[in-house]
C-alpha cells in the first residue's frame, strides 16, 4: 500500500512539475555533471531555435556564452563546486536562436552525493529589456549632467524637515562659496541681497505649501560669500509632498542671469533713442505694458504687419495677420522668451490686400527687482526681399544638387571641391561622404584644354573612377570670380548618351518618314520656319510645279514666284501662326505649265508641324491634282446648258449632242480609273505608315522594359544605405523619399508595359469563363475586402471569346477601383451585374458583324464618385482626379480597361455622381472574329 502511495505521490509531483513548466516562461535546464549532458525544457529549446533537441553536450552551452563573459562564468561555477556550495547565480550574455545575444539572469542549484557534485539544475530568465533600460537610464543621466554643465546651470536640494541645503559646485560658485556641500538654509539666506530676502523667503514658503502645487520660479540677487560679488540668479524648483501634504524634498536649478539683467538695464537706457532712430530707418517698433495690457505699435510696424500705415493696431490684430502656417513658430518663440527674456522669430504676415510678406520680430522683457516682467518692447523689420532671396537660393541649391547634369567646382589649382549627386553617380564616386582627393582633369580621358581659357565648351569623354568606363558628355567650364578675385573653376557636363540615342532614333524615324514621302505618288512638301523655307519635297510635287531640286532651301515665295497675287502664301502663314490646319477641295491654282501660267485644280491640305512643347515649327503640304475631273465637270456643265438652250429649237441635233455627252462620259470614266490607281497608291503608303507605327510601339515597349533594371538597382542600393546603422536621420528621411519614388516609378513603368502590350494586339483568343476570372480576382482581394468590411454581390458571369490575361486585368482593375475610392465612414457596397443584349438593342457603331449576342457587365459602387464632366479624363493614361497621397495608384488602370475592351471590339460606359458612387459598364460581344 505504501509503495502504491509513493508511486502515486511521485506521479503527482511529476504532473505538478510539468504543469509548472508549461505555466512559466522561464528557461529550465539540468546539467548532469557525471556524463556531461545538458537537458533543457521545451521553452528553452524553442528559444534556442533547436526544438528537436532535448539533450545536448554541455559544451554546446559554453559555445553560446559570449566569449567575453565565459571565463568569468566558468570561474564562478568552478569556485562554487570547489567549496561545495549549493547555490549559484549570475548575469551574462547568451546566444539566442535568432543569432542575437541576450542578457540572461541564471540561477543554479547543486546536488551532491558523497561530497561530489552530481548535477546542477537551474532557471534562466531573459533580462535583455531590463539591462537595456538601465543602460538607457545611465546614458540619459550622463546627457542630463552634460546638458546642465554646458548650460552653466547648477542644481540644489532643500530638505524641509532638517532645513539643510545640498548644492553642487555650480551653485556654490553662484553664491561665491567654496566650502561644504551641505549648508543650512539660514546660511543661504545670509548671502542673498537683503532687499530680496523677503521675496525669496515668501516664494520658498509658498512652494512648500501643498495647496500651491510646489512650483518655485524666482529671480533675485546674491552677494558672494567670499568674493563679495553681486550676481543675479534665476532659480526654478519643485517641492514633493507625502500623503499628509508635508514637504519632504524641495529640488531645483539655479542659473546666473547677471549678464542678461545688465544687458536689459543698458537696453532700457537707450530704448527711447533707439526707437526714434529705428523709425527713421524703416523698421517698426512696439511696446507692451505687462501690468495694464496696453500695447503700442508704430505706424511703420503696422504697415509691415498689415500693409496699412496706421497706429490703430493691437496685439490681437498682429496675431490675426500672422500666416496660419507660422503661428506655431510665434508661439514657441514667446515660450522661449519667457525663459530667456528675449524674443526673436521670423514669420509671414498676410496683408489686408491678401498679399504675403515676411517680417523679423525681436523683443525684450524688462523685469523689476523681483524678476517679474513689467513691459515688453521690440522691433519689427520687413525681410520680405531677404526671405524671397533665401527661398530662391534654396531652390537654386536644390536645382544644382538634383540637376540631371553634372555640376562640379574646383579650387584655383583644379582640385575637385564639389560634385553633385549626378556627378558622383556617373563618375563612380560614393554619393555620401567626402570627395576623394582628385583633380577635375582626372575625370576626363584626355587632357582637354578646359583650364586654358576663361570659358571653354566642348565635347569630352568622362571617365568613371572605379571602372574606367567612358561616357560622352558636353562640358562647359568657366572661371569663377568673387568681387574680381579668381577663386576656382565651375563645370557643367551633360550626359550625351540619351541625346545621341534619341538623335539616332530620330534620324532613323526621319529617314523612314523621308523615304515614305519621297516614294509617295501624291505630291508632298514641307516648309519650315516663319519664312516657310522649302525643306523636303518629293518628285510628285516637283513634277506638279515643273521645278527641280534647286527649290530646296528657298522660301515658298522664291520657289514659286507665280504664286504672287494668289492666297496660298497667306494661308500658309496663317496655319503657321495659329497652328490650325487648312483643307481645300477643288481649289484653282495658277501654275507654270510649259512656260505658261495655267489654271489647275487641287484637293490639298496644310497641316501644322509641332514640337514636343506644342510650338509650330513648320507646315506639311499634301495635294491631289484633280484638274481633269474639274475640267470634265465644266465640260459637262457647259454641255447641259447648251442642251437646255437647244432642246426646243434644235431637236434634230439631239443625236449629235448625245454622242458628245457619251464621249465626255468616257473621258470621265478614264479620269476615275486614274483616281482609283492614285487611291491604291495612297493605301499602300498608309500600310507603310502603319508598319512604321508598329515599329515605334515596339521600341516604346522595349525602352520601358529596359528602364526596370536601373530602377531596381536604385531601389536596392537606396534600401541598403537606408538600413545602415550610422545613417543620419535627415539622410534616412531623404532615402525614404527616394525609395518611395522608386517604388512609385516601378509601378508606373509596370503599368506602362501593360499598356504597351495592349497596343501590340498579339494575343490569341479563346473561350474565357468570366465567372471563374471573377472568383479568382475576389480571392486576390480577400484581405482588402475583409479590411474594409466590404459587401460584394455578383451575378454569374458568362463565358465569352477573349484573351484570358486581358480579361483578368479588366476585372482586376474594375474591382480595385471600386475598393480604392471608398467614402470614409461608409461601408463599401459593390455589385457586379450582367445583362444579355441583342444586337438590335445596341446603338454603338460599328458593331462586330455576324455577332448577335452581347453582354453588358457592370461594376457599381457606393464610393466617392466624381463629376460626370470628367468622365473622359478618367480613361486617359496617368490622368488622376485625386492626389496620390489620398488615393494611391499610377492613373493608368482605367486607360488599360478601355484599351482591353476596345481590343475586344467593345466599349466602356460610365455613370457617376459625387458622394453617391460610380457604375462602369463594359459592353462585350460573345464571339470574336479571328485574333484580337
Helix-strand category: alpha+beta
**Helicity level, as a percent range?**
40-55%
What's the tally of helices?
A: 26
What is the CATH architecture annotation of the largest domain? 2-Layer Sandwich
CATH class of the largest domain: Alpha Beta
N→C terminal distance? 91 Å
What is the overall silhouette?
extended
Give a count of the beta strands, DSSP E runs of length 2 or more.
34
Question: Kindly state the mean pLDDT as a whole number?
Answer: 80
CATH topology of the largest domain: Heat Shock Protein 90
- Across the major sheet, the strand order is 3-2-1-6-5-4
Major sheet:
6 strands, antiparallel
User: What number of domains?
Assistant: 6
- Tell me what portion of residues adopts beta-strand conformation: 25-35%
Low-confidence stretches: 1-10, 882-886
Q: Gyration radius, to the nearest Å?
A: 46 Å
CATH superfamily of the largest domain: Histidine kinase-like ATPase, C-terminal domain
Enzyme class: transferase
Catalytic activity: ATP + protein L-histidine = ADP + protein N-phospho-L-histidine
Organism: Filimonas zeae
InterPro entries: HATPase_C_sf (IPR036890), HATPase_dom (IPR003594), His_kinase_dom (IPR005467), HisK_dim/P_dom (IPR003661), HisK_dim/P_sf (IPR036097), PAC (IPR001610), PAS (IPR000014), PAS-assoc_C (IPR000700)
Write the layout of secondary structure elements.
Layout (H helix, E strand, L loop, with lengths): L1 H22 L3 E6 L4 E4 L1 H7 L6 E3 H7 L5 H13 L4 E9 L5 E13 L2 E11 L1 H23 L2 E7 L4 E4 L1 H6 L7 E3 H6 L6 H11 L7 E9 L6 E12 L5 E10 L1 H23 L3 E6 L5 E3 L1 H8 L8 H7 L5 H14 L1 E9 L5 E12 L5 E10 L1 H18 L4 E5 L5 E4 L1 H7 L27 E9 L6 E13 L2 E11 L1 H23 L4 E5 L4 E5 L1 H7 L10 H4 L8 H11 L3 E12 L2 E15 L5 E10 L1 H20 L7 H53 L1 H15 L6 H32 L5 E4 H11 L1 H7 L2 E4 L4 E4 L1 H17 L8 E10 L14 E9 L31 H11 L3 E7 L3 E9 L7
Parallel strand pairs: 29-31
Antiparallel strand pairs: 1-2, 1-6, 2-3, 4-5, 5-6, 7-8, 7-12, 8-9, 10-11, 11-12, 13-14, 13-17, 15-16, 16-17, 18-19, 18-22, 20-21, 21-22, 23-24, 23-27, 25-26, 26-27, 28-30, 31-32, 32-34, 33-34
Helix pairs in contact: 15-20, 19-20, 20-22, 21-22, 22-26, 23-25, 25-26
Amino acid at each position: 500500500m505504501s509503495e502504491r502511495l509513493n508511486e502515486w505521490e511521485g506521479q503527482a509531483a511529476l504532473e505538478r512539475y510539468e504543469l509548472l513548466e508549461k505555466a512559466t516562461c522561464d528557461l529550465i535546464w539540468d546539467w548532469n555533471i557525471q556524463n556531461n549532458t545538458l537537458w533543457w525544457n521545451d521553452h528553452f529549446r524553442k528559444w534556442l531555435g533547436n526544438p528537436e533537441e532535448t539533450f545536448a553536450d554541455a559544451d554546446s552551452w559554453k559555445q553560446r556564452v559570449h566569449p567575453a563573459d565565459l571565463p568569468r562564468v566558468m570561474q564562478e561555477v568552478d569556485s562554487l563546486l570547489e567549496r561545495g556550495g549549493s547555490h549559484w547565480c549570475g548575469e551574462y550574455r547568451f546566444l539566442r536562436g535568432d543569432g542575437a545575444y541576450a542578457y540572461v539572469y541564471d540561477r543554479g542549484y547543486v546536488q551532491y552525493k558523497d561530497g561530489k557534485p552530481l548535477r546542477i539544475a537551474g532557471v534562466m530568465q531573459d533580462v535583455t529589456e531590463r539591462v537595456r533600460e538601465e543602460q538607457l537610464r545611465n546614458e540619459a543621466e550622463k546627457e542630463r549632467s552634460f546638458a546642465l554643465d554646458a548650460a552653466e546651470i547648477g542644481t540644489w536640494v532643500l530638505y524641509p524637515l532638517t532645513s539643510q541645503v545640498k548644492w553642487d559646485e555650480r551653485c556654490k560658485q553662484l553664491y561665491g562659496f567654496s566650502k561644504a556641500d551641505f549648508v543650512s538654509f539660514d546660511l543661504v539666506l545670509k548671502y542673498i541681497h537683503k532687499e530680496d530676502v523677503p521675496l525669496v523667503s515668501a516664494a520658498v514658503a509658498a512652494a512648500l505649501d501643498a495647496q500651491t502645487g510646489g512650483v518655485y520660479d524666482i529671480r533675485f540677487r546674491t552677494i558672494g560669500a567670499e568674493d563679495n560679488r553681486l550676481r543675479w540668479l534665476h532659480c526654478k524648483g519643485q517641492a514633493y509632498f507625502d500623503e499628509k501634504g508635508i514637504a519632504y524634498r524641495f529640488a531645483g536649478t539655479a542659473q546666473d542671469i547677471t549678464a542678461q539683467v545688465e544687458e536689459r538695464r543698458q537696453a532700457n537706457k537707450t530704448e527711447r533713442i533707439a526707437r526714434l532712430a529705428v523709425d527713421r530707418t524703416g523698421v517698426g517698433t512696439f511696446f507692451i505694458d505687462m501690468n495694464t495690457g496696453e500695447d503700442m505699435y508704430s505706424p511703420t510696424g503696422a504697415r509691415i504687419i498689415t500693409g496699412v500705415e496706421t497706429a490703430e493696431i493691437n496685439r490681437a490684430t498682429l496675431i490675426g495677420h500672422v500666416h496660419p502656417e507660422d503661428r506655431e513658430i510665434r508661439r514657441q518663440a514667446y515660450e522661449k522668451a519667457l525663459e530667456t527674456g528675449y524674443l526673436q522669430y521670423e514669420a509671414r504676415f498676410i496683408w489686408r490686400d491678401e498679399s504675403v510678406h515676411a517680417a523679423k520680430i525681436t523683443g525684450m522683457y524688462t523685469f523689476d527687482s523681483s524678476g517679474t516682467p513689467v513691459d515688453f518692447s521690440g522691433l519689427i523689420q520687413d525681410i520680405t526681399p531677404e526671405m524671397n532671396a533665401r527661398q530662391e537660393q534654396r531652390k537654386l541649391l536644390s536645382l544644382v544638387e538634383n540637376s540631371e547634369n553634372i555640376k562640379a567646382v574646383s579650387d584655383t589649382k583644379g582640385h575637385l571641391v564639389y560634385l553633385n549627386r549626378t556627378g558622383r553617380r556617373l563618375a563612380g564616386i560614393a554619393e555620401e561622404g567626402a570627395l576623394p582627393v582628385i583633380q577635375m582633369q582626372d575625370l576626363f580621358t584626355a587632357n582637354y584644354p578646359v583650364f586654358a581659357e576663361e570659358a571653354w565648351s566642348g565635347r569630352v569623354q568622362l571617365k568613371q573612377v572605379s571602372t574606367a568606363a567612358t561616357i560622352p558628355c558636353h562640358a562647359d567650364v568657366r572661371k569663377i570670380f568673387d568681387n574680381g578675385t579668381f577663386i576656382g573653376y565651375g563645370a557643367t557636363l551633360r550626359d550625351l548618351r540619351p541625346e545621341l540615342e534619341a538623335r539616332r532614333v530620330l534620324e532613323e524615324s526621319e529617314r523612314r518618314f523621308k523615304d515614305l514621302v519621297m516614294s509617295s505618288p501624291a505630291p508632298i512638301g514641307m516648309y519650315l520656319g516663319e519664312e516657310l523655307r522649302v525643306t523636303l519635297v518629293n518628285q510628285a510635287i516637283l513634277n506638279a510645279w515643273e521645278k527641280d531640286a534647286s527649290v530646296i532651301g528657298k522660301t515658298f515665295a522664291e520657289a514659286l514666284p507665280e504664286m504672287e497675287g494668289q492666297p496660298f502664301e497667306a494661308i500658309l502663314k496663317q496655319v503657321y501662326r495659329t497652328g490650325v490646319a487648312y483643307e481645300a477641295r477643288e481649289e484653282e491654282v495658277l501654275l507654270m505649265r510649259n512656260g505658261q501660267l495655267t489654271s489647275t485644280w487641287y484637293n490639298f491640305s496644310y497641316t501644322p508641324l509641332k514640337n514636343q512643347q506644342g510650338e509650330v515649327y513648320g507646315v506639311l503640304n499634301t495635294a491631289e491634282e484633280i484638274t481633269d475631273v474639274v475640267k470634265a465637270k465644266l465640260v459637262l456643265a457647259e454641255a447641259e446648258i447648251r442642251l437646255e438652250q437647244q432642246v426646243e429649237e434644235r431637236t434634230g441635233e439631239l443625236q449629235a449632242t448625245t454622242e458628245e455627252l457619251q464621249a465626255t462620259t468616257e473621258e470621265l470614266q478614264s479620269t476615275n480609273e486614274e483616281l482609283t490607281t492614285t487611291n491604291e497608291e495612297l493605301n499602300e503608303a498608309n500600310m507603310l505608315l502603319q508598319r512604321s507605327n508598329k515599329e515605334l510601339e515596339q521600341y516604346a515597349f522595349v525602352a520601358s522594359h529596359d528602364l526596370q533594371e536601373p530602377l531596381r538597382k536604385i531601389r536596392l542600393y537606396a534600401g541598403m544605405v537606408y538600413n545602415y546603422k550610422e545613417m543620419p536621420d535627415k539622410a534616412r528621411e531623404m532615402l525614404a523619399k527616394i525609395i518611395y519614388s522608386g517604388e512609385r516609378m516601378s509601378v508606373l513603368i509596370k503599368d506602362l508595359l501593360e499598356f504597351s502590350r495592349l497596343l501590340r494586339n498579339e494575343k490569341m483568343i479563346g473561350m474565357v469563363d468570366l465567372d471563374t476570372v471573377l472568383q479568382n480576382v475576389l480571392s486576390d482581394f480577400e484581405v482588402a475586402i475583409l479590411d474594409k468590411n466590404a459587401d460584394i454581390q455578383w451575378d454569374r458571369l458568362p463565358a465569352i471569346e477573349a484573351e484570358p490575361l486581358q480579361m483578368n486585368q479588366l476585372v482586376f482593375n474594375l474591382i480595385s477601383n471600386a475598393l480604392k475610392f471608398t467614402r470614409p465612414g461608409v461601408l463599401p457596397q459593390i455589385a457586379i451585374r450582367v445583362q444579355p443584349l441583342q444586337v438590335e438593342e445596341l446603338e454603338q457603331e460599328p458593331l462586330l458583324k455576324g455577332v448577335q449576342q452581347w453582354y453588358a457587365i457592370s461594376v457599381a459602387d457606393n464610393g466617392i464618385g466624381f463629376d460626370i464632366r470628367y468622365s473622359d479624363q478618367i480613361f486617359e493614361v496617368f490622368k488622376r482626379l485625386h492626389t496620390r497621397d489620398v488615393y494611391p495608384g499610377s492613373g493608368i488602370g482605367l486607360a488599360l480597361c478601355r484599351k482591353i475592351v476596345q481590343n475586344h471590339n467593345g466599349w466602356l460606359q460610365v455613370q457617376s455622381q459625387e458622394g453617391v458612387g460610380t457604375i462602369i459598364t463594359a459592353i462585350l460581344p460573345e464571339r470574336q472574329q479571328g485574333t484580337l
